[in-house]
Amino acid sequence: MKLVLASNNAGKLAELQAMLVPLGVELVKQSDLGIGEADEPYRTFVENALAKARHAAQGSGLPALADDAGLCVDAFGGLPGVDTAYYATQFGYEKGDDNNVRALLEQLKNQPDRRAALVSTLVAVRTPDDPEPLIAVGRVAGLIAQEPVGTHGFGFDPVMYIPEFGQTFAQLPPQVKNANSHRGKAARQMMELIRERWL
């Protein structure tokens, strides 16, 4: 089965491709098919992921899989949430992972509550008008570290400290991270849903 990934994020593509191997699914980036990014006007992960999946299915004529993920910080009332990718731009920095981490650490500098969760919402549709999208949500709670540690992963992985491992996501070997990450949890749920409903 061929699925269009409604993302141009190389990190997401690599992670999801590895996670979906057991299904025998081939993921194709939407940009490889000349499909541009979808608008993401919504305030929830599930609405944005659904909009992205429908957009990719419409443009490709293939089933589509979209991921909307982000960091939800307790001290900020769950923000940046859906604005995670652009977090740094609110503080005068250019968009980018390193700047996002820098801005987050600056904003949390004197904040005792460092609890946060990484959330991944995967949505798959057979067609743009699929009335029964498959929805899987993965969530990992942890603490924001005082400084970045580790060289694996991307995004907020270097500052996402996971107490059960005593390390940040960026310190964990990729296979351990993928097995325990928000995206890993969502991908496992999604594989079960695809097996049960589509195959």
TrEMBL record:
This protein's UniProt keywords: Hydrolase, Magnesium, Metal-binding, Nucleotide metabolism, Nucleotide-binding
Pfam family, one: Ham1p_like
Enzyme superclass (EC): hydrolase
One GO CC term on file: cytosol
Active site residues according to the UniProt entry: D68
InterPro entries tied to this protein: dITP/XTP_pyrophosphatase, ITPase-like_fam, RdgB/HAM1
Residues reported to bind substrate: S7, N8, N9, A10, G11, K12, A69, F154, G155, F156, D157, K177, H182, R183
Catalytic reaction equation(s): dITP + H2O = dIMP + diphosphate + H(+); ITP + H2O = IMP + diphosphate + H(+); XTP + H2O = XMP + diphosphate + H(+)
This protein's name: dITP/XTP pyrophosphatase
Organism, scientific name: Caenimonas koreensis DSM 17982
Phylogenetic classification of the source organism: Bacteria, Pseudomonadati, Pseudomonadota, Betaproteobacteria, Burkholderiales
